[in-house]
Amino acid sequence: MDWGILKSGVEGLQSHGSDLQKRLRGLRRRLTLLLAVVGPGLITSNVDNDAGGISVYTQAGAQYGYALLWSLIPMTIALYVTEEMCARMGVVTGKGLSDLIREEFGFRPTFFVMVMGFFVDLANVVAEFAGVAAAMQIFHVSKYVAVPIAAILVWILVIRGTYRQVEVIFLFACILYLSYVFSAVFAKPDWLIAAKQTVIPTLHWDSGFLVMLTGLVGTTIAPWQFFYLQAGFVEKKVGPRQYPQAKADVLIGSISCMVIVFFIIICCAATLYVSGHRDITDAGQAAQALFPLAGKGAGILFAFGLLNASLFAASILPLSTAHVICEGLGFEAGLDHKFRDAPIFYWLYTVLIVVGAGVVLLPNAPLWKILIFSQVGNGIWLPVVVIFILLLVNRRDLMGEYVNTTTFNVVAWVTAIAMIVLTLVLTYTALFQHAPPSAT
Amino acid sequence: MELYATELMGSKTYDASGNYVGKVREFFIEPAEAPNRVSHFLLSRGHFQPLVAKHNQVASVTAGKLDLNVSERALELYQPNEALLAVQKDLLDQQIIDTRGRKVVRVNDLDLAEQRLNGNVELRLTQVDVGLPGAVRRLLQGVMPPKVIRKLQSRLPQSSIRWEFVNLIEPDPLRRVKLRITHEKLEDLHPADLAEIMEDLSATERQSIIASLDEETAAAVLGELDARLTTQIVEDLDPEKAADIIEEMAPDAAADLLADLSKETSEELLHEMPGQEADEVRELLEFDPSTAGGMMNTDFVFVSENSTRGEILEWLGKQELNFDQLDTIVLLDSKAQYSGAVPVARLLLAAQEERVGALKMDPVLSLGPDADEKEVFELFDKYNLRMLTVVDKESRPVGAITVDDVVSRLVK
Questions:
Q1: Looking at CA atoms only, how far is residue B137 from chain A in angstroms?
Q2: Closest-CA distance of chain B to residue A205, Å
Q3: Among A262, A282, B142, B260, which one has the highest count of C-beta atoms within 10 angstroms of its own C-beta?
Q4: Which residues contact B74 (CB under 8 A, 6 or more apart)?
C-alpha cells in the first residue's frame, strides 16, 4: 500500500524528441523571436508613403525628372535616425512617447502636443480619404460610394482586430506597395541617369525646386510616426534584449520606404516629365496621365498603389492620434483592449474617421486649405516633438546605458536642426507664397 | 478648507513681518516622520539660492498666498534630500498604483486639507486626483484666477483616490527605504490583479516591484503575467533570487517559464534550484508544450484505492498541501498502477469507513504524455473533467492536468 505525494515519479521516462527536432525547434524559436519584434518600424515607414506623400513624389518626378533623387539618401538617414531613437525609448523604458513627455515635461507641454496632433492628423486623415476618392475615380467609382465603404472597412478592421491581427494586415499592405516597382518598370525609365542622379546632388536655384525639396522632407518625417512607432514596440512588449531586432526593423522600414519613393519618382520622371506633362498636381492626375504614356498596366498599378497607401494611412493615423491623446491624459489605450475597457481610445478613433471621411464627401470640400493647414500645423508640431525626443533620449535616468553616444548625438542634432529649418521654410511658403500646394 | 496642489504651487510667500520671501516652487512630504503631512516648502527667490520653510513655520495658507510665522532669517537654505518625497517631481504626472481600484493611474493633482495646531497651519495630503477636474486645474492654473477655475471644475465628474490606497512606484531600492515605500498593500491583491497592474508599468518599475515582493507572491504574479514580460523580468533578476521565486511555482508553471528563456539562462537557474525540484522541472521541459506532457503538473495527491475516507482525511490533515492539489485525488491499485480518480466532493459525502475505490469516477480516464493537446481538450469537454491523469507505458501516474491549464491554453 503506497501513500504519498508524487514529487518526482517521472524517472524512466524517455526524453522525447530527437536531436534534429530539438534543433529545428531552436531555429523556429529564433525566427519567431524576430518576427515577434518586426512590424512597427516596417509599417510606420511605409505609411509615410501615404496619399499626400505620393502626391509630392509624383510632382517631384513630373516637374523635375530625376533631379531630386539625390535627396533620398539623406532622407533615409534622417528617417532612420529619428525613428531609431523612438524605438530605443520604447524598448528600454516600456513606455509610449506621450507617457514620457508627460512624466518628464509636465501636463501643459503634453496637452499642447496632443492638441496639435489631433488637428494636424485630422487634416492628414482628410487627405487620405481624398486619396481613396481619387484612386477609385480612376476605376470609375464615385467618391460617394468609395469613401463611406473605405471608412467602414477601416473602422471595422481596427475595432474588431487585436494588435497582432491588424499588424499582419498592415504588413501585407506594405508588400502591396511593390505595385509601384512594377509600375516604374512598365514606364521604361532611363536607369543609368536615375542611378547617377541618386548619388550626385544637383541643385537648381529656382524657388520651385527648393520648395519641392522642402516638401519632400516635410512629407517624409511626420511626428505621428514617432508616437505610433514607440507605442507599437510597447504594445508588442519588446524588451531591451530584443533591441537589435527592433533596430533591424526600423532600418529595413526606412530603406524600404525610400526604395518605394525612388520608384514612384522615376516612374513619373520617365513618363510625365519626359513627355512634358509637368504640371501634375496630385497622384490621381498622375495615374490618369500614365495610361496613354506607359500603358494601362502602369496606370492601374499606380492607382492601386495610391488606394492601398490611402487606406493604410487612413487606418494608422487615427490610431496613432488616439494613442497620443489617451496616453497623455491617462486613459487606457491600445488595440489589445476591448471596446469597453478603452472607450475613449476607440471613440477618438471613430470620430477621426467619421470627420475625415465626412469632409471629403462635402460638395465643395476645401481640400486645398486643409492641406495647407496641415503643413502649417506640422511646422509647429514637428520641431517641438523632435526636440522633446532628443532631450528624452539623452536622459541617463530614463535610458540607462542606452543614451545617445556622442557621435549619434551629433548626427541626430544636425538631422533635427536640418529638418526643423526645412519644415519652417515649408510652412512659410505654404502660408505666404501660395505655391502649388504640396501635401504633407 | 480644501486646497489643491496646483493652487499651492507658485504661491507668494510672506514672512511674519510681511516681507516677500519668494514663490512656492515645490513642496515635500517626509514619510519617515509623518506619512501624509506636508513637511517642507521650497521657496524660490530668482537668482538667490532657494529657502526652505518647515511645516511648523506656516501661519496661514490660501490659494496663491502663504504666510509664515517666522522671519525670513529663520529659514534655512535648500539642500536636496532623498528622504523627502517631492510633490511636483515625484508625484505630479507620475504613475501610481491604486490598490483599491487595482490599477495604475496617473496623478493629475493632489488634494490637501488644512489642520490648525498650536497656532500653525499644517497641510495634509488627503487624496490624489486622477480625473478631469485635476487635468483642468493643471491646464488653467496661472492663466485664470483660482476662483474661476474652482467653479469650472466643480461641474466635472470627480475621480480621486485616497492617499492610504496609493502605492508609490520608485525603482531605486535605497530611495524606497528612505521613503518608507513598502509593497504590503500589493501583496494583499490577487496575483492576477497585480499582474495586470504590472503590465501598465515600465520595465524598471516592474523589476523593482518583483524584487520587493516576497517570493511566494512574486511566483504567483509571474505565473499570471504575459510570457514576454515574465521573460524580461526573470532575465534581469539575480539568478539566486530568480531561482528562489521559481522554486515557489508549481513545476509546470516553472517549466513553461524556463522554456521561454535562453538555454544558458534556464540552465543557470536550474543549477541554483534544489536538486529535486530542478530535476522535476527538467523532466517537464523535455516535453513538447503542445502535448499532454507539456501541460501536466507533477505535483498531485495519490492514495491507495483501499484506503478509507477516515484514513485519508487524517493523513491529508498532516500534510502541507495547497488547495489546487486537492481538487481530485488519484488512486493506485496494489501494483502501484493508476486505477482511477476521486473528486474531493465525493469524499466529503462518503462514510468514514467507506473504501475510496468505490467512489472513483466512471469511466476511468488517462492518457500518455505524448498525447496531443487537442485530445486533452476534447476529453475535458466531453466528460466535464476538472483533472486528468497522465500515465506512462506501465500505467503508472506521472502527472495531472488541471482545468485551469486547459483554460489558459484555450484563451491564448
A1: 10
A2: 46
A3: A282
A4: B57
Nearest Cα neighbor of A308 from A278, A287, A322 is: A287
Q: How many CB pairs under 8 A join A and B?
A: 110
Terminal-to-terminal C-alpha distance of chain A: 81
Q: Residue A340's pLDDT is what?
A: 81
The domain tally of chain A equals: 1
Of B259, B321, B296, nearest to B391 by C-alpha is: B296
Domain match, B22 and B151 both = yes
Q: Which of A107, A233, A326, A336 to mutate to test the interface with B (most CBs of B within 10 A)?
A: A107
Helix (H, G, I), strand (E, B) or coil at B9: coil
User: Looking at the partner chain, which of A4, A8, A237 has a beta carbon nearest the beta carbon of B226?
Assistant: A237
Residue A31 included in any domain: no
User: What is the number of alpha carbons within 13 Å of residue B111 lying toward its C-beta?
Assistant: 19
Distance from CA of B287 to the nearest CA of A (A): 6
In angstroms, the Cα distances linking B26 to A46, A158, B51, B60 are 45, 43, 11, 17
- Give the closest of B93, B301, B392 to A102, CB-based: B93
| ipTM attached to this prediction | 0.77
Asked whether residue A158 is assigned to any structural domain, the reply reads: yes
Cell triple for A404: 545617445
- What DSSP assignment string belongs to A110-175? HHHHHHHHHHHHHHHHHHHHHHHHHHHHHTT--HHHHHHHHHHHHHHHHHH--HHHHHHHHHHHHH
- A3: nearest CB among B95, B203, B303: B303
Residue A112 located in a structural domain: yes
Do B40 and B76 fall within a single domain?
yes
Distance from CA of A391 to the nearest CA of B (A): 17
Residues 6+ apart with CB under 8 A from A403: A393, A394, A395, A396
CATH number at residue B330: 3.10.580.10
Question: Rounded CA gap, B72 and B20, in Å?
Answer: 9
List b or e across A34-61, with b for residues whose CB sees 16 or more CB atoms inside 10 angstroms.
eeebbbbbbbbbbbbbbbbbbbbbbbbb
Q: Which residue of A has its CA nearest to B297?
A: A7
Q: What is the pLDDT of residue A1?
A: 31
Q: Any idea what DSSP says for residue B371?
A: S
- The CATH number assigned to the domain holding A222 equals 1.20.1740.10
- From chain B, the residues in CB contact with A241 under 8 A are 232, 235
Dist. CA A257–CA A279, nearest whole Å: 25
Arithmetic mean of pLDDT over chain A: 81
Structural domain that includes position A98: 39-432
**Each residue of B5-21: b (16+ CB within 10 Å) or e?**
bbbbbebebbbeeeeeb
**How confident is the model at residue A7, as a pLDDT?**
37
Closest to B8 (Cα-Cα) out of B135, B158, B99, B142: B142
Same domain, B264 and B346: no
- Does any domain span residue A155? yes
Category of B137 on φ-ψ map: left (φ > 0), alpha (ψ -120 to 50) or beta? alpha
Give the pLDDT confidence of B177-217 residue by residue, as tens digits. Answer: 888 888 888 888 899 999 988 888 888 888 888 888 889 99
pTM over 0.90? The answer is: no
**H or E segment to which residue A48 belongs:** none
pLDDT tens track for B314-328: 888 887 777 777 788
Interface of A with B (CB under 8 A): 1-10, 12-13, 15-17, 36, 92-95, 102-103, 106-108, 110-111, 236-241, 329-330
The reply to whether residue B108 touches residue A106, judged by beta carbons under 8 angstroms, is: no
